[in-house]
Amino acid sequence: MSRQTDVVIGGGGMVGATLALALAQGGLKVIVVDPVPPAAATDAKFDGRVSALSYSSQRMFEALGVWPKLSQDAQPIRDILVTDAPLGGAPSPFSLHFDSDEIGRPMGAIAENRHIRRCLFDAMDAEKNITLIAPAAMTGLEDEGGKIVASLSNGEKISASLAVAADGRESPMREEMGIGVIGWSYPQWGIVATVEHEKPHNGVAYEHFLPSGPFAILPMTPASSSEAVGQKKANRSSLVWTEKDNVAPAMMKLPDDEFNAEIAKRFGDHLGLTKAAGPRWSYPLKFHMARAFVKSRFALCGDSAHGIHPIAGQGLNLGLKDAAALAETLLDTARLGLDIGTLDVLKRYERWRRFDSVTMGFTMDAFNRLFSNDIAPLRFARDLGLGIVDQIPPLRRLFMRTAGGDIGKLPRLLKGEAA
């Protein structure tokens, strides 16, 4: 079976689905191919992670009509507190506090990935210009000059003006098209769990730097009514714990009471008693950057183009910026009646996004190397730096705007406008 479309997207995750919506709402026909069916991708056991959505990403979801449904499962970030301490020791007297009152709005929101996916799937299902094929995967791409033909694992072929790979860090289609990457592994793993705690979090996100790496406590909404029938809704936060790669596997195997004791040792007592609720997840931390973001009739988007350290939770926001910039580039070209798949068009997208991606990636890498150690002179220097930034309001607000994705040449969607 063969189908024709304007754009075929390999990967129906959060970035691929967002790109599909932006293109479809702009009038292009899109086919999305993903090996995981929606029912599995939105199951609580599939992915226990949360994402920190910057306020520019939130504006994008508002413009695409996704936010009204997602907002009920998204916890506004009202404050961010950054501290530094040795394991089991008192925090440094220097800290950095970001207060949302300074910018007149929450600094973003925390939402479970499964809820983001659910809202995106619902929006795609309602969009007549989108066809979702799942489960299926792209297995090959062939540039035939005026079009590109994607072969699927179910035997179908799709002919399109452009193919986009939004198929994750290991991106089979990036490899298929011969685009290399530069990258390295960190001597760290990420451990993720949902934690219930005695006291309310009041919308405060904590970034606590320990010698092994950042220990983030991200405020979540209480369990939804369907998950908390007949019981009091618990105060919840998502734990994103960076641990040394030779320690993390042992932590993952601990019995619940010992795991909870390790959490409490790092959490402190500011939220009262704590305990992990539900499964734990872990994954090795890596950095990569594609050597090119585009080829003729082919583009990379999201994690297929770049993967950065999660120290500031900017990975998804970086991918959503890709989706917004690519959608704007393609739709502006289509409105002029021009071919959206030519290399000169796609190079405009690459120039727009590559510098920002490289800058963000290496900045997060530097922050991780600076803070993930217990070297006394470095500890003093970074603590002093936190204290200085905290005392300079214009500099503090610049950091807040940067975290909110509100710096540089923004695509229209990130301003809350239609693409």
Task: Label the overall shape.
Answer: globular
Structural class designation: alpha+beta
pLDDT average, as an integer?
92
CATH architecture of the largest domain: 3-Layer(bba) Sandwich
Name the CATH class of the largest domain: Alpha Beta
Beta-strand percent range:
25-35%
Oligomer: single chain
Count of DSSP-assigned helices: 12
Query: Would you identify the CATH H-level superfamily of the largest domain?
Result: FAD/NAD(P)-binding domain
How many independent structural domains? 2
Report on the architecture of this protein.
It is a single chain. This protein is an alpha+beta fold and 419 residues long. The chain folds into two domains: 239 residues, 3-Layer(bba) Sandwich (FAD/NAD(P)-binding domain); 131 residues, 2-Layer Sandwich (D-Amino Acid Oxidase, Chain A, domain 2). The protein is 33% helix and 30% strand. The strands form three sheets. Strands 1, 2, 8, 9, 10, 11, 17 and 18 form an eight-stranded mixed β-sheet that branches. An eight-stranded mixed β-sheet has the order 6-5-13-14-15-12-16-19. A three-stranded antiparallel β-sheet has the order 3-7-4. A hairpin with a 4-residue loop joins strand 10 and strand 11. The chain starts with a strand and ends in a 16-residue tail after the last helix.
